[in-house]
Specification:
flat
Length: 75
């Protein structure tokens, strides 16, 4: 697993993104959830988050900060 991860991390960004999409799709296939139910649930989550944002009850974080933290964790 460690060797596979190391090889994947050495791929160009576009290839890593393609691999990540394929892996995520493979997980979705295993879960075999109803796509309409998943879409409905995401719609509810989006509405909930927007309401919290507009109400000022959540703290936003700049994307640059989130990406910097994610990159630091991968190193």
């Amino acid at each position: 697993m460690e060797q596979l991860e190391a090889e994947a991390l050495n791929l160009p960004a576009s290839e890593r993104a393609r691999l990540a999409r394929r892996l995520l799709v493979s997980l979705d296939d295993e879960d075999a959830e109803d796509p309409q139910e998943v879409e409905r649930a995401w719609g509810e989550e989006i509405r909930r988050r927007l309401e919290a944002y507009h109400a000022g009850t959540v703290q936003t974080i700049p994307a640059s900060e989130v990406l910097a933290k994610a990159r630091a964790r991968l190193r």
